[in-house]
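input
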Amino acid sequence: MRWRGERESDNVEDRRGMSGGGKIIGGGLGGIVILVIALLLGADPRQLLEQVPAGDPASGPQTSRPNDPQDEGVKFVRVVLASTEDYWTDAFRRMGRQYRAPKLQLFTDRVQSACGVAGAAVGPFYCAGDEKIYLDLSFFKELRTRFRAPGDFAEAYVIAHEVGHHVQNLLGTMSKVDSARGRVSQEEENQLSVRLELQADFLAGLWANYANQKNLLDPDDIDEALGAASAVGDDRLQKESQGYVVPDSFTHGASEQRIRWFRKGFETGDIRQGDTFNTRSL
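output
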């Protein structure tokens, strides 16, 4: 991705090295595959924080350390977020709406959000309660190694997907899905979650279309994004973690579905093509 020299967002809060308070969720990267599957790329963190037992309390506040504003990883995040701001500001204007950009908070180890306390093991997530995206940069190493999805545009896809959830929040889609929870069966609730996630993939694809028009993409960038979408498909992750696949338990969509909806957003560039809630075939 040709990101160097591009505008950087002012909406990134760098709180790496600062204590988030509370307890660390999960028990270390070696034992949290299921948790990562559930929260990776946008699952509702409130549900996971209710279901996952907390680990041992931290022994005390973490020692704050200075953060280098010239850190390449941080600059990359700022540029990607700025690009999503530019795209969605214009897209909302064309819909007769005003876009309210989300904040993106970088953290280390654990963080306190309006959705609860979360450890780095949960992966990146969006919290509608405070309209923030939370990201521990160590996740990008996991994306390259554990999930075998390398490349800077794979990382950009992760950010764009979380921004997609913010867009869903602003458009009221997320609240409609939330209101249905508890009134439908678990299988139907899972299906709603899948449709929400696939739409966020589509919205990430819309941004990728814009980035391509702005000549920000290298030839292999879309393949990197598709590789990341495939790597975090429910079928692939369930096969890896438990050795078999249970489609009725999917909450994010199969690899092929995630690829298809991201590609549809990228190829059409038309937000009207992304209604995952009123189509029979996903």
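quick obs: Residues 12-278 form one domain.
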